[in-house]
From TrEMBL:
HAMAP family: MltG
Reactions this protein catalyses: a peptidoglycan chain = a peptidoglycan chain with N-acetyl-1,6-anhydromuramyl-[peptide] at the reducing end + a peptidoglycan chain with N-acetylglucosamine at the non-reducing end
InterPro entries associated with the record: MLTG-like
Name of the protein this chain belongs to: Endolytic murein transglycosylase
Gene3D superfamilies, per the entry: Endolytic murein transglycosylase
Amino acid sequence: MQPAHPGARFRDQRRPPRKNKGGTLVLIISLLGVVLLAGVAFMFVPRMLESQKPAGPAAGTEVTVEIPVGASGDEIASILSKAHVIEDSKSYYAAVAALGADLSLKPGTYRFVVGQSPEEVVRLLVAGPNVEAGRLTVPEGMTVTQTADKVEAALGIPAQDFLDAAHASAFVGDYPFLSEAANDSLEGYLWPKTYTFTGTPQATDVIRAMLDQYAHEHDELGFDAGREEINRRYGVEMSEYDILKMASIIERETLTDDQRVDASSTFYNRLKIDMALQSDATMMYVTGGEVTAQDLKIESPYNTYLNKGLPPTPICTPSRASIAAALAPSDTDYLYFYYSNGTVYFSKTHDEHLEAIERNR
């Protein structure tokens, strides 16, 4: 073969490769298209996602919000945001700062209107709960069962739910004074007063509020000093639980403070000589109503005609005045009393007692 012309190979090596101008242009246009589409997607996808979020209540709608005790500023903001009370957390935080309300936001139940300004929301939180709270009034002398009925009527908590929760063993860990309670009963401990609850309290919340109040009152009443004085005067050892039992009997047997301290003295005088307390009120705890002569023959640990000493548990929740009377009875020689038409007639002897009954029937 003849070798190629020496200039031919030279010319082939020097010739630059041919550029595909049309392909490059297509590539550039394609890349620009991708960038443009990405930009469009970046602009519209968030809007599409936002449109898929559940719609909040319309402006002007009332919403109720519960701010729990101890909630932090961020937790409050989160609660308000979820309820659509605020839509812009930054504006809300700015309003809190502008009004100097960081430490003034109050827990409780609030009613807001969707669309209120952040400043209006913060001012409401500073003013305090604006939803009427549940009010529960427990009078003196109520049993646990009667209290349960009051709770149901005032707060809507079923009475049976309250009774199912009202066991001393469920609360003794936080309230050591319940260690003395008999029959796993809270009888006598559910302190009588008017309570205010926000939100939707549970039976245990109500019970704890009452036990907290009992603990507070207990610390002020001076149980230890009273028990020592009773032991000195009557030679009777009384536990704190015994004081509560005595106070509950006094509560159901009397109406006034003067009657309370004299009835207390009468009962302690009976204990001193090992005489039965003979209280109709303790049998009323069994019968739930008036006590007849036949009822007083019923064998029951609450029958203080047949059994000496105090009943197994208190028979109601006593008032502060009755507990004070149980801790500090008057100084008398009374052994009997007779109640008639709002008046109590005290006597030292059985004959005097019979005469008082005959005169005041």
